[in-house]
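Exercise 7.
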Amino acid sequence: MELNLHGSARTIAEAVQRARSAEAAGFDGIFFADSQLSSLDPFQVLALCATQTTRLRLGTAVSNMVYRDPSVLANSAVTVNEISQGRAVLGLGTGDGPVYSLGRSATKLAEFEQGLRTIRDLVRGKSISVPRGKERQAEGRVNLRVGKLPVPIYISAEGPRSLRVAGRVADGVILGSGFDLRVLDWAREQVAEGAREAGRDPSEIDIMPAGMIAVDDDGPRARSLVRSRLANRAHHNFRFTLETVPPDEVAGVKRFMAGFDISKPLEERIDPNLVTDYLVQRFTIAGTPQECVQRVRELAQAGVRRLLLTPPEAIYHQVLQAWGCKVIPQL
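Solution. The predicted structure, written as tokens, is:
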């Protein structure tokens, strides 16, 4: 099982410390968010972290096409891939909070898929067609002439349509729907449907479940540390579909959604009492060291090869170190 950390980079010193600490603790990769005006440029951060580490996978989770043209994203990805000697991963999404906060709209799914095809061709060494302007109607062909190719492309996908896009175009999925094995099976079906539409083998598309983590010798305390923080992820997920929610949990999820206030600061958007045990179990791996080990083993037995794990920002380093000391050695 490959364990990857996720978080934001607000200072260079913090980003480098996290990358170094993650590698020393036994993690396999680190992914940085791309949030305009509230985090550092992830590609520059990853380039620097590449010079400070030797084996970590280095990815974005996730960038978008609202602020960056597909050709720019491809060029940035292969540049980091050259600096890191082949350790880069390009994580993409249609756009969420960082887009809405500046009055922009997320990329429409059809345009997103077309952009993915452009990036995929470029980072695999294929040429793409480009218009030559209004006066010259004939199209030309261009290709990437720099960087290290190829670069794997993962997309953040939760709803059925985006999961099918992943099956058609992407190398992998960042599954923000959490760690529930039933949801994993459902997501695999959607990805497989898209893969078959494109004549691809579904087994070629990696699914990387993502969620929050915490660990403490007191299991309930560990879960309390992530209860409020997971709310943003759960709310984002259930805007797309409730079909993955068990019937006996639907009422609780609907109360949670009704009580969520996105206009408030992150830690104040929900009454913690509305965050049900089901949501904690689904969107986090939190508890005693042995409980965390057991959850990871269950996912491995279900065929999961990679996880994307986000410690609470306020205690990021403590959780990183605790997983490195108490969880990873047992795996």
